[in-house]
Amino acid sequence: MPYGTITTIAESPLRYSLLYVGTDDGNIQATKDGGYTWTLVSAAPKKGSALPQGLWVSRVIASKYKEPRVYASLSGYRKDDFGAYLYVSEDYGATWSQLGKDLPSEPINVVREDPKNENILYVGTDGGLYVSFDRGQSFMAWNSGLPKSVPVHDIAIQARDNEIILGTHGRSLYVSKLDDIQGLYADKDWMKKKPKVKEEPTRRRFENEAEGEPQEEQD
Fold this sequence. Notes:
By secondary structure, this protein is mostly beta strands. It contains 2 helices and 15 strands.
């Protein structure tokens, strides 16, 4: 089976010319000079610090909070491997540590950082959306208002409006404010204290599970 296709590319928001690319054979390459020279960073020389080999690199994200930090998700479903492969490097990909060890066995399609808090991560899998308050050490499902077991193929963050947008497989787009997630990080009783604001019925939305009944709105 031929390989060599780039599946994901990320540019560092903190350093001009720092780029990462992931390919369909499990390799991640990094450049610090805008693409003139590249270094393979997925096969770290230190034992136990390399990425699993031969998987599909579904997403690479260069952190907006620390220049050397980079996240990577991998998928093995094309080989009937349904493990949840999520990793972080704090040294430009020289060594990697696994995150999300409590995630269910579902291929991971995307990982995103919260726009305001480096400790909050969002992960989209073939089974739904998950959120972490401790930078990937543990996750919880965020599924209220979403179809059951919907594959989340992409996540976009609208920083200006503090919104998360989900792209799903055949189940439309979903949008939600991130205020509640950020509020819960600071105060576990946030949902009881927050003021009630009526949403404008402009887009299909999903709400935080802690808020109670899901709300779905369309034009």
